[in-house]
Description:
Elements: H1 3-10, E1 21-26, E2 31-37, E3 40-43, H2 51-56, E4 66-70, E5 76-77, E6 84-86, E7 94-99, H3 103-114, H4 122-133, H5 145-156, H6 162-168, E8 173-178, E9 189-192, E10 199-200, E11 203-209, E12 215-223, E13 225-226, H7 227-232, H8 237-241, E14 247-255, H9 262-266, E15 269-275, E16 281-287, H10 295-303, E17 312-315, E18 340-345, E19 349-357, H11 368-377
Parallel strand pairs: 5-6, 7-17, 9-19
Antiparallel strand pairs: 1-2, 1-6, 1-14, 2-3, 3-4, 7-8, 10-13, 11-12, 11-17, 12-14, 15-16, 15-18, 18-19
Helix pairs in contact: 3-4, 3-6
Keywords: Hydrolase, Metal-binding
InterPro entries: FAH, Fumarylacetoacetase-like_C, Fumarylacetoacetase_C_sf
GO molecular function, one term: hydrolase activity
Amino acid sequence: MTETQSSILGALPADWRSATLLGRIDRGDGPSPVLVKDGIVHDMARVAPTVSALVAQGVTDQAGGEAIGELETIGLSPAADAAVRLLSPIDLQCVKAAGVTFAVSALERVIEEGARGDHARAAEVRTRLESALGGNIRSVVPGSDEAAALKEALIADGLWSQYLEVAIGPDAEIFTKAPVLSTVGWGAEVGVRSDSTWNNPEPEVVLLADANGRAVGATLGNDVNLRDFEGRSALLLGKAKDNNASCSLGPFVRLFDDGFGIDDVRAAEVTLRIEGADGYTLDGYSTMREISRDPETLLAQAMSEHQYPDGLVLFLGTLFAPTQDRDAPGRGFTHKVGDRVTIASARLGTLVNTVTTSKAAAPWSQGIGALMQNLAQRGLLAR
């Protein structure tokens, strides 16, 4: 077994042999949706040419697909020249994200805002805010009378923030994270802006939904975040969130079935490990049980006055907000080129990416037009 084969097996859910996994591969002729059933990889391009179309047709079994081999032996790799290249598991879905859905991350966003994106001031702002809030925000139900009363008290103390509005107010923050087809997958490099000096990974559980807003599966994601840009102004959210290679997903989407469903998402535990080329390590832990809004509530808010005819994925937010110093005391954490980021959850698998700058990452060149042209050339649109 090669190192690459060993790595992908280690990245799969603990019970992967009984799971139905949805993804995308490229065998040299272009991207194809695949289903992994009973450990066998099935190319589903002749059933539906895209992951979006496969989901729309409700396909969850391998009937009509081409069995191309056992997952242990086909040599899945993220390398551009691999015989069977593993890609991000989604294609035409819109990439949406819910922000500030955990109390800890809400406080960190308020700190970013108070520090105006200056990591050197973060410790001072954190101390003042935590002293004023105590543990109150963790138990507050968003949109409740208690939340409204807390809001009034914080306004009176001069401590209210737009981030607390979406953390405990009636409306969740829902934003577009990345353009269609721009996400990267397991093993790929993830990018941070070359002019950012305060940034971090955001390990998250991500729902896959069809055009009707029905959740059909889940995967892991890294919503790479620039704390300095968003901290300077919320109007810089686009620059903080949407950059080349700044959104990763994978390794596969686990489809809902009798053995895995939305309640498993609600109970998911997520771990994070960052290993720097400089010897620095950081470990984090998150549990979906602490999310302030239910995943299906967030999905309903994303769908409330919008349509997504090709479906969508929704990042559900993160509990993780790194404050462990990396360099000088009080400066907190920020990425360095070469960091290895490992996000794991027992029933979803492990997503591994290496950090580079968005300028240095492989350029995104295959958009919707290129995909349609490729599918047409392969005869996959002639139906």
